[in-house]
């Protein structure tokens, strides 16, 4: 994707996501980190279409924003995964899961525990891979997550 398209997708995401969250959440007007106290191990860019958030195996995986479970799949590259459709068509993807607690068609609230982080593959660190698509374009999830304060 060209720099201009990435920039436009980011701008579109910045405009649509607050609407997405507002439309789906009566209690809060914000998004939630999918893994609490995780460390970002890999960032968005190049061939990496999301972020990797390091966490202990078994750590709870939370819904980033309210929405509906669109798909629950298993792939060779991503292991068990969930796709959530949010208002205005935004879609979040969560990979490397175990103990999935939701089914296709279920409504999820922001922060709901949907699954747990899977143990690491050979020689790797356990982590959640998280992607965000807005307006059909993959965007940097870090631009749409709450800032972490210490």
What does this structure look like?
The chain is α+β, with helices and mostly antiparallel strands and 150 residues long. It has one helix at residues 3-24; strands at 39-42, 51-54, 60-62, 67-75, 79-85, 91-98, 107-108, 113-117, 127-134, 137-139. The model is unreliable at 1-29 (pLDDT under 50).
Write down the CATH topology. Answer: Glucose Permease (Domain IIA)
Structural class: alpha+beta
How would you characterize the largest beta sheet? 10 strands, antiparallel
How many helical stretches?
Answer: 1
Q: What amount of the residues lies in strands?
A: 35-45%
CATH superfamily: Glucose Permease (Domain IIA)
User: What oligomeric state best describes the polypeptide chains here?
Assistant: single chain
Q: Write the H/E string, N to C.
A: HEEEEEEEEEE
Q: Overall 3D geometry?
A: globular
The span between the termini is 35 Å
Under the CATH scheme, the architecture is Distorted Sandwich
| Count of separate structural domains | 1
The overall pLDDT, averaged over residues, is: 82
At the first level of CATH, the class is Mainly Beta
Helix content: 10-25%
Low-confidence stretches: 1-29
């Amino acid at each position: 994707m060209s720099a201009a398209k990435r920039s436009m997708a980011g701008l579109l995401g910045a405009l649509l996501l607050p609407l997405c969250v507002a439309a789906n959440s009566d209690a809060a007007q914000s998004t939630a980190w999918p893994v609490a106290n995780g460390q970002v191990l890999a960032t968005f860019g190049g061939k990496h279409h999301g972020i990797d958030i390091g966490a202990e195996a078994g750590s709870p995986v939370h819904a980033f924003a309210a929405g509906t479970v669109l798909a629950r799949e298993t792939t060779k590259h991503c292991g068990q995964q969930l796709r959530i459709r949010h208002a205005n068509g935004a879609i979040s993807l969560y990979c490397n899961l175990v103990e999935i607690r939701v089914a296709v068609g279920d409504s999820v609230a922001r922060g709901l525990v949907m699954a747990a982080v899977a143990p690491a593959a050979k020689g790797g660190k356990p982590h959640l891979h998280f992607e965000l698509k807005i307006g059909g374009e993959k965007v940097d999830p870090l631009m749409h997550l709450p800032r972490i304060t210490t």
